[in-house]
Design a protein that fits this description.
The protein is mainly alpha-helical and 146 residues long. Helix content is 65%, strand content 0%. Helix 1 packs across helix 2, helix 1 packs parallel to helix 4 and helix 4 packs across helix 5.
């Protein structure tokens, strides 16, 4: 193996470690290793093993962020709860906008969230003064003031 090939192998190893440390953020990892983004992308194009390792790091980063989202949900963070439901609960009627249905499914879903977050207490009013979860509650991640 030539000196240049050996240096490339060492840079790839260092880059994979830096990607792990920086949760897959390429620019930060490149800066830490002292290589260009172009080198990283060239390695991805030319080296299937390197590319696979990079993909695994991306999956690790997603797992890490999901665990933080679940921690926020466990802490009753309304923003995290609604974000999760809008992205993972679409088949159950959770949408990016409120559309009252004939069967009242979304109303019932909001009641379930209110029960979980505020213990069923209907004294929590949204920005518009109604008893529904409002953009005020979902943007701050805390219960709105009464």
């Amino acid at each position: 193996m030539s000196e240049e090939q050996n240096r490339t192998v060492q840079h790839k190893k260092a880059m994979l470690e830096a990607l792990k440390k920086n949760l897959g953020i390429i620019s930060k990892a490149c800066e830490a290793v002292g290589i260009s983004r172009a080198s990283h992308y060239k390695w991805c194009d030319e080296d299937p093993e390197y590319k696979q390792a990079v993909e695994e790091i991306k999956e690790y980063a997603i797992d890490f962020v999901e665990s933080k989202l679940y921690a926020c949900i466990n802490d009753k963070n309304i923003t995290a709860i609604i974000y999760y439901l809008k992205n993972q609960g679409r088949k159950r009627g959770w949408l990016n906008e409120y559309k009252p249905g004939k069967d009242g499914q979304q109303e019932e879903q909001f009641k379930v969230i209110k029960e979980y977050v505020w213990g069923g207490n209907d004294n929590h009013k949204g920005a518009s003064g109604d008893n529904k979860l409002s953009s005020d509650a979902s943007s701050t991640g805390s219960q709105p003031n009464s």
